[in-house]
Amino acid sequence: MLALALPTDPIDVLLKAHGLRRTSAARTVLGWLLAHPDTSYTHAQLQNALAIEREEALDRVTLYRLMDRLTQVGLLLCRVDSQRVRRYQAMPASVHATPHFECQSCHRDSPLGAALMASDLEKAAQTAIETLRALGYQDMHFDLAVKGVCVDCASINPPATALGVAP
Questions:
Q1: Buried b (16+ CB within 10 A) or exposed e, 134-164
Q2: Which of 40, 69, 77, 135 makes a 20 to 30 Å CA pair with 91?
């Protein structure tokens, strides 16, 4: 008798390909972050968002360990913001190739390849990595982040000087 191949869950495929167990918690966390690719979340923000979606809350320590494992295998991107808070998001394909902009208000992460001379920045990054490698550094990647307030957030809260108010 022929067994019909059921469509494979892409989240299960990703977890398996990266050597991770396909637990309910892992599927939920990775699924949530993949469904919201332009937003980075703190541990607490992600725990709160998941608590709304799940019947059973995810333990704080379990979530932290899971996010750490997902980051170690390259499925999540972890950045430390200007207040030294870790923010996680699904690993965007563009992060390896182009610089990105992180909004300090909404924490959306946007690639800047089209806005900047990406080829010049990639050459500079490659030169920096080669120089450091020659000095003995290992396992490096170059991550150029421009931080500020995005156009959407700026239009909601324009600076006081734009409104004619003196600082």
A1: eeeeeeeeeebeeeebbeebeeeeeeeeeee
A2: 135
